[in-house]
Each structure stands twice: as C-alpha cells, then as structure tokens.
Amino acid sequence: MKRLLIISYYWPPTGGSGVQRWVKFAKFLPAQGWQPVIYTPLNPERLAEDDSLCADIPPEAEIIRTPIREPYALYRRIFGGGKTKGEINPVSRSRSGWKKKFSLFLRGNFFVPDPRAGWVKPSVKFLLDYLEAHPVDAIVTTGPPHSMHLIGRDLCRALRRTGRPCPPWFADFRDPWTRMFYFKHLELLPWNRRRHEKLEQSVLDEATRVIAVSPPVRDDFQKATRTPVELITNGFDPDDFTGEAAVPDEGSFALVHTGLFAADGNPLNLWQALAELCREDASFRRQLRIRLAGKVDGEIVGAIAGAGLGECLENLGYLPHTEVTALQRRADVLMLPLRREPEYAAVLPGKIFEYLAARRPVLGIGQRDGAAACVLRAAGAGDMFEWEDTASVKAFLEREWQRRLAGERSPCSTAAGKYSRVELTRQLVALLNV
Asked: What homologous superfamily does CATH list for 2-70+109-236+421-432?
C-alpha cells in the first residue's frame, strides 16, 4: 500500500468544517490503495470538539502528533475572540473601535501568515528525520492555516538541499489565501501584504500540483502559476445519509441551518419574510421552528429576536456530526446564507454538499451569480436570492409551507452523487497515481 503524508492543523477530536475534508479522504483512501499518515499538532486550539468524527479514522491510518507553541490563545484572551459576546468572526468589516482595530493589526502583522507559523521550523526538522526512516509516496498540505503549506514547501526544499528525493507535494487550499474575503480586514502594513503575496506565490509555484475546492478559486490560482491546478470540491459521506428518508417533526415547519453562522452572513430579509408570514398566518407562527446547529454569532440571535421570532428559535449549539446530518434530513427548508463579502462569490461552503445529500429544499441568500448559486441551480436543489430581495424569499417560504400543508415531501436534488466523498477520493487518487 502506498503512503500519503497529510499535514493538517485540524484533526479529530477537533470538530468543525475544517477537519471533515481530510478525515473523510482518509476514511476512503485505504480501499483505493493508499495509507493515510497524518501529521497534526498534539495540542491545537480547539474551538469545537466532535468525538463522533473519530469513528471515520480508518484502522490503517497512522497519526503523528508533535507539540505546537502558538500565541493565539493569549491573543484571544487579551483582545477578544468573541466568546463572551457571542462573536465568532473576529476578522470582519463589522468590527470597530480602537481595541478591535489594534487586535486586527497584531493578528495581521505579527502572525504571518497566521498564528501557527511557529510550528513550521520544528515540523520540518521532525519530518526530515521521520521520512528518512518512514518514506512516503506523496505529501499533501491542507490550509488554512496556510502555515501548513509552508511546512510542505520548506520540507521539500530541505530534502532537495540534502540530496534526498522529495515525493510529489500537493497543496490543498480549502479556502483562498490573499483573495479570501477577510484578508482585506487584517489591517496589514504594505510590506506584510507583500510577504503574504510572496509566500502564497512560492507555494503555488513550488508545489507539484495545487488543489482548489471551487471553480473560481481554481481559475484564479491557474492564472497566477504554471503549476497545474486541479478542482476537487468538498462533498458528503454517503454513510451519513443511509437508511430510510427522515420524517419531519410532527406539528412543526422547520428551517434548519448547520455550521458556523457569522454576523456578516445575517440574512435580515429572511427574518423579515418570516415575520410577515407569522403576522399573516397564525398557524404558520405556531409551527415555525428556526433550528440552528453550530456556532452562532450573537448578532444573529439578536436579529431573530428583534424580528419577533424569538419564541420560534431553537439554538442547539454544536452537535456531533451524526446528529447534524439527521437534522438536515428532517428539515422543511435548509438555510444557506452566505457572507456578505464580494470575494465570497467564489466560495463553495462545505455544508452545501450535505444539503444536497439531505435532498431538502435549500434557501440561499447571497450572490445569484456566485459558485454556490450555480451548484444549487444545476442540482435542482433550491435557489439563491440577493440580500435585499425579501419578496422572493417570502414567496419561496410560502410555497414550501403550502407543500407541507398538502403533505408533499418529494425529495429535491438527485444530482448529489458526483459530490460523494467516495467519488472525490477516486479523483484524489487519480492525481496521486500520476
């Protein structure tokens, strides 16, 4: 069996979207002839934990952990990570005041490319010794944090410098780097902006191949480098969606959102449309349930209450992934509000593929010409509406409410299969075997 070294900051029991991509790849790699060897911190900062993801780690996997020293925890305690106020998006255009601006200045200029940069040198030293005794056939680095890519870059440089062969290195970008939506909010000094750009370019140019998760990001990267850039999207695990179709909760009309729900994605037109329907239809108000599973910004909760919908809200907090997929399948409508940033048009949120697998109607709020809108329309899974378009959102909700009253629950989206993690792993293995 060939061996693939995966360098990732996120690994179970850490929870959240950042860990799922590669733990799912690792799950299906052995069946296709590759043993996953995961290099990850012993003591990472965990904003969420999900022990259920540990069940996806195959017995063939080798897990290597080394300690990491990172100043980010102290930084968050001093300057605020939003825990006390329910803010989950500290790098945001909505942040104001000198303290918040100063915290962004420190975050952007003293932690380049990110607060995990101090792990690069010790990791390269450790992996040089490790690979001498335990060779691998390929290396993958996955970011963010983009320091993981610097580990891959510097490891390959060190191997060549010592006359040792370097395996093919694949740089997997789960999000863009300098074109990520929050990059412009980092209060970067000009020379640090140039440092980010040079570091990003070095990764693009020195990797054997670059992997992107959305077509626009792939195209942007390909314009910037001669290195081949491949598209492998995120997806869903078919094992999470087995069994009979979930039955909706009796006596409720459930709108469900799973995952991070940040303030810069607050769909005010959705809350307004729901409030209007509640005023017009007493039965709708009695049955309406707004179920949020995951980390939710306090501003979202405040907006729901401000629209008079507080009694309809069920803020469930972070749930094990197995419970999240069950909740998605029971929904009457799945909510997909995107962040209100122009760069977000290029992003495909990981949850969209599980929404497709759940086969429930998806109500998106965001750019109608963005990557996520194209996926929804192509799959026949729902629609995307602009942030100011309350009337269309209300019409969408009215249609689904009437379908619920009529007892109709025909599944949406029969085109999710190409986003199966099994199929995506086949695409990955095809690249690794070249």
From this structure: Glycogen Phosphorylase B; (3.40.50.2000)
